[in-house]
């Protein structure tokens, strides 16, 4: 089916993103994978190209355009290029809304220009070694000391953890409040007591720096409280729908791209004297994956349109959960089946299908696992 989601302006932006990937990302990507981190220059280049802060007000150096379809184009093209290491989606779509919606005017003046230029790389620190995604289990604390907070605790699996200049930390400010006693504190590079652990060795997305973070008596100024005191739970829940939709967009784009690659491969690759595409089993595999991708694409595009509609309320959290778990589980299944159809070549790291198999595996985990998504949906239906 012909997609009707995007306008000529969106497609023109797609061309800009592809040019950026070809010039500023792909020539360096193999080295970034070896290094386990992307270069700071890549972030600055993204800022110069206008790819950072798409929804940030123009007065702070942003694009001033909240249309989520532009973010979707970015996610699709970075996924097709197999370049998840430069985590622009995390920066724009996940962390950006916290700064644009919750920051005071003074905080916006301090942080948003650098956010848009690439001089300030961001991260959000929620997950802890013993708590995972359970907000009620968070142990990181922030004690009120008059004009500042004293922050103590640790976080793990933090994307952009090594590069980040600004980290939004979820901490317990009212111990007896449970999930409703949490606040968002902004920790900046150079604050005494803020330390980074090792760059974690993952099975995929090697160039995306993921780290442990440690906070020992970090003095966080009161003016670095983001949003309402003890309001982190509501703030986090408000922004999760967009985060999950962004992951779903990458999920279906990844599945579609793998299907394209594999369709070409089975037409060219011969076995037993004829192309693999002549085998009924292979045709059935391709047919099943194509159908699943087409059905999923229709739903995800509808979710994008709903979220981008300026006259609406944005995407419903339940539909976002549906899109997230279904699209990412599809991506996982398609990656596995496409690797199998590539045979031994699919197991070689230089083949895109092999990298997609490992890079995409995290999709069903971060942003809320598939199991959590199903729990959210089930509760909405059954109470």
List the helices and strands and how they pair.
Layout: H1 8-35, H2 40-48, H3 68-80, H4 88-102, H5 105-117, E1 122-125, E2 141-144, E3 148-159, E4 166-172, E5 182-188, E6 194-199, E7 210-221, E8 225-226, H6 232-268, E9 270-271, E10 274-275, H7 280-308, H8 317-342, H9 352-359, H10 370-382
Helix pairs in contact: 1-3, 3-6, 4-5, 4-6, 6-7, 6-8, 7-8, 8-9, 8-10
Structure, explained:
The chain contains 10 helices and 10 strands. The protein has 383 residues and is α+β, with helices and mostly antiparallel strands. The mean pLDDT is 96. Helix 4 packs antiparallel against helix 6 (232-268) and helix 8 (317-342) packs antiparallel against helix 9. The strands form 3 sheets. A 4-stranded mixed sheet has the order 1-4-5-8, covered by helices on one side. It has a 4-stranded antiparallel sheet with strand order 2-3-7-6, with no helix packed on it. Helix content is 50%, strand content 15%.
Give a short overview.
By secondary structure, the protein is an alpha+beta fold. The chain is 50% helix and 15% strand. The chain has a 4-stranded mixed β-sheet, with helices on one face. A 4-stranded antiparallel β-sheet has the order 2-3-7-6, with no helix packed on it. Strands 9-10 form a two-stranded antiparallel ribbon.
